[in-house]
Known about the structure:
alpha+beta, four-stranded antiparallel beta sheet, elongated
Amino acid sequence: MATVPAAFMAPEVAAGRPSSFAADVYSLAVLLLHTATGRLPFGDGPPPVLAYRALHNRPELPDLPGELGEVVAAALAASPTDRPTAAELCRTLIPAGQDPERAPDPLPGRVVAALAVRTQAIADLEIADADADADADGHGDGHADDRDPADADAHEPPHPATQAALPPAPAPSTPDAAARPTRRRVLSGLLTGAAGAALGVSGTRAWSGLTRADSRTGPSAAGSGSGTSPRVPGMPPAALWRLDDPTARIRLLPVSSADHCLMTRGDGLYGHDLRTGKEVWQLPAGGGTPPVQVHGDRFLTATREGLSLCSMRDGRTQWLQRSEHLARVLAADGAAAWLLMGDGSPTGGYLLAAFDLEHRKELWRTPLPSGFGNAQLATAVGPETVVVEVQAPQQMFRDVTAVRTLAIAGFERSSGRMLWNRSYPDVHGGPASVVDPAGGGRLFLLSGGRAHAYDLKTGTRLWESQALVAGTNAPPFYSGGTLYLTDDGTGPIVAVDPDTGRTLWEQTLTENLTWNMLGSMTASASGRTLYLATLHQVTATGLPSGKRLWQTGLAGVVAREPFQLAAVPGTLLVARPSAVVALPAD
């Protein structure tokens, strides 16, 4: 009770009687009044004086509109039985026209991060107490008895509000006190689950210490799928592990297997165990060209010597195909890869080459149009067509007013014959297009404040979206037969039917965004969740409903650019240049 400000404490609690949901309603009413007016209902003074006023005086409710004043006055009633229930309070305060049965909005990422800082402090105390208890009791494992003198009544049931937020407790299998969580452990575990990826720098150690008395919630259990859902609706899942880089040079790569993931840190390429985050191997980064994943838990990378096929498990080179003209690995699909090659001419032209990975031989090569090759290229591979697109120069990503001409060409997959070469003017600056190469192929791009779809085979425009999209957008994202767009302000995330351009749903964000705060989107491996990165938080949205599931921040790091995201089977990787966190995903 000493940690609760006296002015916010219900009078029956101040008098020593048991707390209840009604006491929480009273505290909320004090908070509402203080937020609206800057005043407290019974003024200032020592706790006994405030308790006396709460029991005998009427609260002062200046400058509150009629209905809100009535609600707050009722919630500040001296008798708990005279106060409205939480449900009645919600029905009264909910905005007109809003569904009172809908799930509550997730906490903003900054709030979750702030909770995480407190979580870490509590976790450190818990671990220190457990170690001290182990030393006192002569147990070397540090958890034979997790109770401390402050938790002598740990056998008592938790507060009703806490119990409502916790999962059902398992039946005790032994009378050992280690099987019974202390009150601080209950609080720590709840906040850790709420904070999710927003744990502090030593979050991995804290998480292990908090969950060692219940192996079902530990990192290994979460990694196997038992921890993929938040314990409380609207809360993010608890982090599996966290890796910090004091040099702040981390870049996630969309390359992973069932057990390993890849990232760069400065000039090095690193393989990490996906279950623990532990580094297992290191290679030179390959001249800055990103590796490309191929089947069989392997990846391709362009080195100074040529084309290298490496194992994702240990980083070892399985074979090296020497080539002095190899510039970059563009894409891979099945047993074939597509490479960017210099033609060796004085003019410095470039070629697109197809390479058979099984027989280690080149299948064909064909000249790229003028303007391709000396810029960053995006390559999409379909059953019959390979589509190569010239991406926007990096400096255009920072120019909110910029427009550009998008150059894109299609090649026959089997022979390399160029099928078409087109350009699209007035496309939004930055990453503003995405290709669906299936069938004849479609191009989705952002231009003139709207999304547009084109048939790549004929060049015909198929539709123009209903939804408005400003020039300050994140890259469009195509997944599972749906196109996803984002905008600045408070969002929204817009789901668009790729066949008609019709808006399927919109989801606003609680974060007010400006043009440089929007990051990329990705979907879980199952296709059931869409993740969006912004400057301060990561938002998870359920598919296909469009319902926001949770959002979270990352404590202990400076936000200078949007989060990096990489979805791998069962896991979502969230990164800043200085830290990577793994979250369980559906």
